[in-house]
Amino acid sequence: MIDHSREIAEIWKMLKETNKQMRETDRQMKETDRKIDKLETIVGGIGNSNGFLAEDIFFNSFKKNMILGNIIFDTVDRNVSRFHKGLEDEFDIVLTNAHCLAIVEVKYNYHPNDVKSVFKKIKNFRLLFPHYQNFTIYGAIAALTMSNRTIELAKKYGFFALTQAGQKLKILNDKVEKL
Length: 179
Prior knowledge:
This protein is an alpha/beta fold.
């Protein structure tokens, strides 16, 4: 009979070492996951802070001067939200007068993929605030930065495109449509 005890002991030793290495790898992966989660929280906080900053800038500009293009508004509201019959939405800035309103959606950097979503916001606004059914509604996007493609899409959809220019709003597109 052949004695395999030395070989078995060597295999057992290798299995223990492999198990030890796997536990260490698992510990390192958990630590990496924890660091990634923390980084996601930090980056998300920066993104949210940038969004709040952009909203502050545009809202404060409209509080000082409630004019968009050649339309004079009487009121400006921020973060208007409503829930009705299972539908809920929030609108960054809403300007109103006796006959029309403008819904201004604000981002720190407006991406072209986000422009079309303003149509959905307008549709939701009409459903959530039926007393504005007969008002003319204008759509607007506002950002501290936006690409030329974003501006072109705003023009295509008939939205105002706004950015900041020093202490004033700068209208990048004034060929808008009643929606």
